[in-house]
Amino acid sequence: MAMLQALRLGAHTCVKSGSRDLATLSASHSASVASRSHKVAIVGGGSAGLTIGHQLLRTGAFRAQDIAIVDPNEWHHYQPGWTLVGGGLKDKRQLRARLSSLVDPKISLYAQGVSNFTPEQNTIDLINGHRITYDQLVVCPGIKVDFKSIKGLDEAVHDPHSPVSSIYSYDTCDKTARNIASFKKGKAIFTHPAGVVKCAGAPQKIMWLALDGWRRAGLYNPGDPSKSDTQITFATAMPVMFGVPKYSQRLNELREQRAVDGLFEHDLVGINGNTATLAKPDGSLVEKHFDLLHAVPKMKPYDFVKASSLANESGFVDIDQATLQHNTYGNVWSAGDASGLPTSKTAAAITAQAPVLVSNLLSSLDKRPLQAVYNGYTSCPLLTEYGKVMLAEFKYGGTPHETFGTFVDQGTPRRAFYHLKKDFFPWVYYKFMVEGTWAGPKGWKR
Ligand code: UQ1
After folding, report:
1. Is 295 a pocket residue for ligand 1 (Cβ < 6 Å)?
2. Can you give the pLDDT at residue 396?
3. Which of 30, 92, 101, 355 has its CA 20 to 30 A from that of 176?
4. Mean pLDDT of 236-261
5. What is the pTM of this model?
């Protein structure tokens, strides 16, 4: 019930509340030389780092400055909102807050990048040469979105006049909205890259919004594309629309109903003017002309994680998929996009990972057995048109794990889920989640 009340509230208050204190810089954050030893050092002040840091603080087990967050970024972004920016539904500046304004003054904030992990000595080295010592380490710096991974992409997305854009960065997500709005006819291609993708539904969410906008403007006829001068293609490196069969099947039905051409196992590798080059699994290359291209870069672990002894063979942090404890170093933990957890990388996943990590880290400090278990929960609110969302929620193995599943079929796009995605999640994120009091489908926590 409390959740329903907040849903109503959230629809009005929106993410604005997240921008409180935007200009507030707390001097007490700046970690002094004397305090470079911490009970818990958290690498990364993104969704995982902030949520875990504040949940740890709220347990009451830590004193001021026992916990430190290390992150060189000035701004924290609500990245799930960038699809909404690309769809013209949000202003990107309303989705960000100064990182320092989000960190409790009882947590030390080092505005520095990490150069090196030395888990054998319980230390991390920072880019500025300083060394931090810890009892427990939480590694959650996220994943690198590599615009240089596709030839010509970096130049094209940053050229304000090119028809190429991407919702996968703060700098370029609003260009997507402009390109979609100014598109009048021709071939539009939306791509999904090979490899790991954070928020794996976003590459097609933006396509569904664009399609709906063009349909409403009379520029696209989903019933009979030959009646309009616009064709839409989804070019994905994957063999299917989505990694979970239940939702993939529904999305493929939508694709067919809406006459979107599906180029499966086609991986965008190069852009030259208005030509996209796509690679097939047999190594052959296909060239396609486009008048609008929405491209998603390839993503990879950060080098300082990959090069460390904390990484698995893929370069992500090598942790137990149930307890989130490192497989080699018992005082190292990870969550979020940098972790090697075999589940889809989303902010929703953090709502389930954070309480497990916090509980097990405390048990470990008290020399008790680790009892909390992460089941792989993650979610992807798939915008399928303006006003409708298919709320995909699943766990390890791609098994649906739906919060509202006993009442409704979450494979059917619904208006209520749209308001969760557009209004409620951005609001609850900044107001509660990063402060450590939101546990996703489990609701509010103390
Ligand atoms: C969620 O809690 C959350 O965080 C605020 C999201 O935003 C990124 C989500 O997309 C989802 C699905 C959740 C999960 C919560 C419910 C109530 C399904």
Report:
1. no
2. 98
3. 101
4. 98
5. 0.93
